[in-house]
Amino acid sequence: MASADRPIVISGPSGAGKSTLIGKLQQRFPGKFAFSVSHTTRKPRAGEVDGKAYHFVSRDAFMALVHCGGFIEYTESYGNLYGTSVASVLTACSDPNIRCLVDIDSVGVKNFKERCAHLNALYMFISPPSIRLLESRLSQRGTDDDAVLRLRLQQCKQELDYARTGAYDAIVINDDLDRAFTTMLALVNGEQTSGDDIARLPPTDG
Question: Is the whole model's pTM more than 0.70, yes or no?
């Protein structure tokens, strides 16, 4: 599979800016990237549209898909189920003129690598510049209580630890949105960049 055809698997902690960067990529190249829409059992947030942000389903419907092998990967996070369905990825990869985007956490990345190695995906990790800045971003959202915020920060540390294992083809530190997008775009295009590496990942103690 040529570099221009490779699915792009983007991962990183909540609040790192994945959705913003993906949105910028789709806005810059309308119709050129198909976002693989995940399934979730959580309730929609304000402004989220079913079938675009997520496929919002009941827990029973989600588990029915699990039992029939409908997911490439799925996980439970903060009491809600999230999954990348086989159908959503195949649909996103079906047009040779459109490139597939997948947004999953580190558990999903591990499973995707095992089940979809034949797709030769580009694995990209989006990192915040520091844990403290990430905490500030999450607090400013105002969507989570203190308990959920602590869980998100703990998961961030786990995500960073996994990124340090060398699991990703590229790491982008989102300390400046425009600079991060420029780096991301160069990586997507298969261009040589001076992108961020494992050594630049923030410490998990601050």
Answer: yes
